[in-house]
């Protein structure tokens, strides 16, 4: 009976090992998110940022009213006056009230 239980569990255990992400698969999800920050009167700037969840600094002093991402990541941005703006996938989000952005982080979807 014990032998039967062991042999019955082997395919299950093999499936678990096969389902675990390989280092190559995890590395393939890491890319640079393409983010555009929009201010008043058509002013804007662009950043390529990591998508590994690490924080990054935004040093441009432009007051931002919209943030756009080309997709593939969920990104959060933080403003100098306390704003928090999240952009998921290929979308644009309003920053309210408009303000200089100081930091952010992105995670690959």
Provide an overview of this structure:
The chain is an alpha+beta fold. The chain is built from two helices and seven strands; from the N terminus they run H-H-E-E-E-E-E-E-E. It has helices at residues 2-19, 23-29; strands spanning 32-38, 44-50, 52-57, 63-69, 73-79, 84-88, 92-108. Strands 1, 2, 3, 4, 5, 6 and 7 form a seven-stranded antiparallel sheet that branches. The longest helix is centred in the first third of the chain and has 18 residues, at 2-19. The chain is globular. 17% of the residues are buried.
The number of helices is: 2
The amount of beta strand, in percent, is: over 45%
Major sheet summary line = 7 strands, antiparallel
Order of helices and strands: HHEEEEEEE
Radius of gyration (Å): 21 Å
> Which percent range fits the helix content?
10-25%
Structural class computed from helices and strand pairing: alpha+beta
Shape: globular
Task: Please mark out the parts with pLDDT under 50 across 5 or more consecutive residues, or reply none.
Answer: none
């Amino acid at each position: 009976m014990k032998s039967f239980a062991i042999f019955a569990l082997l395919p299950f255990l093999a499936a678990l090992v096969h389902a675990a992400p390989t280092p190559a698969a995890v590395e393939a999800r890491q890319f640079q998110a393409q983010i555009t920050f929009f201010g008043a009167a058509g002013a804007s700037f662009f950043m390529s940022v990591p998508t590994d969840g690490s924080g990054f600094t935004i040093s441009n002093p432009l007051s931002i009213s919209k943030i756009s991402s080309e997709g593939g990541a969920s990104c959060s941005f933080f403003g100098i006056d306390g704003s928090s703006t999240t952009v998921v996938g290929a979308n644009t989000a309003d920053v309210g009230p408009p303000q200089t952005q100081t930091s952010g982080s992105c995670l690959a979807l």
